[in-house]
Amino acid sequence: MNIYDISNKAGVSIATVSRVINGNSNVSEKTKKKVLDVIEECGYTPNAFARGLGLNSMKTVGIMCADSSDPYIASAIFLIEQELRRNNYDALLCCTGYELEDKQKYINLLLSKHIDAIILIGSNFVEADDKMNAYIKEAAKSVPISIINGALSGENIYCTICDDHRAVYDATLALQESGCKEILYLYNAKSYSGNKKLSGYLAAMASETKNNKRDDYIQYIKGDILDVKDHLNNLYHHKLTFDAIITADDLLAIGALKFAKANNLSVPEQLSIIGYNNSIISQCSDPELTSIDNKLDTVCSNCIATLMSVLRGQDAPLKTVFSAELIERNTTRFR
CB-based contacts of 48: which residues, under 8 Å, 6+ apart? Predict the structure, then answer.
């Protein structure tokens, strides 16, 4: 028994059955009773697709991320799902990995599920080569697309981001003002967000002629915490001197803390360290980590608020930018 059978037995259209199921008031009491009697008689349980036919809405939003094991992404998924639930929407999650072909495959999969909108978590979805973003712009012709922590211009595409450039710029200046001169920068992503963070560091260091154009103070590292520790050990033992490390992610900063401990460097007296994301691990480390809070909860809340406005047919900003906040703990000496 399905919605088509109910429609035939009640002698009404499929859309009318769906309106009754969804509680739409645009159905006469007589017709409503007829449909409900047939549903009760047949013991029919409507599925999500059937409920969505009449209102042209599945009340479901697709979520795409690269890797849900990443602490930042995992937190974003949790916050988004909560906000969607408050607005009576369900969520479908797809973990795409980082390959373009897989991203394209999953966005088409979500579209085939007749979802109402798609949320892309992470700036890795925005490619530097705009031709590689064509699949997102094409999908936006069917449903609203919302991007968290990435910016892409296009009709029906809505972006909510933190000002990563300014955040790292201000943090680097704070290190300089605390007396640090040889500031190492660690990053692990060449995404939209990753590039903005790097540009913030470069802008702040531009006035420091000693470090200006010294590429060895900018280190791209892929791997886990121990890989970061080993990488820094290699730099240190090859006589690269640094009195501060600013990172693009808290996990990189934890690797820097392990490096400091292994080499008996006092933090923050000999080495200041700043992380990024202000994740839970920044408070679990010893000493507790100074970190840049990129306001993920605010970003996610705004993302859903914007999306709900769009789904209700209301005006909504195409791009919203929030300011970050430097949370000082015990790995810096700003005072």
Answer: 58, 59, 60, 90
Radius of gyration of the chain (CA): 25
Dist CA 111 CA 116 (whole Å)? 9
Q: On the CB side of 82, how many CA atoms lie within 13 Å of its CA?
A: 11
Nearest to 311 by CA among 92, 57, 65, 134: 57
Q: 164-294, what's its fold?
A: Rossmann fold (3.40.50)
Question: Going by C-beta distance under 8 Å and a sequence separation of 6 or more, which residues neighbour residue 134?
Answer: none
pLDDT category at 173 given cuts 50, 70, 90 is very high
Angle at CA 321, nearest 5°, toward 291 and 247? 25
Omega cis (within 30) before 287: yes
What is the architecture of the domain spanning 3-55? Orthogonal Bundle (1.10)
Contact assessment for residue 267 and residue 260, using Cβ atoms and an 8 Å cutoff: yes
Q: Can you give the residue ranges of every domain in the chain?
A: 3-55, 60-162+296-324, 164-294
What distances in angstroms separate CA 46 from CA 34, 42, 50, 54, 325, one per listed residue? Answer: 16, 12, 6, 12, 47
Shortest CA distance to 225 belongs to which of 180, 186, 278?
Answer: 186
At 182 the three-state DSSP class reads coil
Q: Is 17 helix (H, G, I), strand (E, B) or coil?
A: helix
Domains 3-55 and 164-294 share a fold: no
pLDDT digits (tens, 9 = 90+) for 70-82: 888 999 999 999 9
Beta-carbon contacts of residue 230 (< 8 Å; ≥ 6 apart): none
For the chain, give the percent of residues with pLDDT over 90: 69
Residue type, position 72, single letter: Y
Distance CA 248, CA 164 (A): 9
Strand ranges across the sheet with 60-65: 90-95, 60-65, 117-121, 145-148, 157-162, 319-322
The CATH number that domain 60-162+296-324 falls under is: 3.40.50.2300
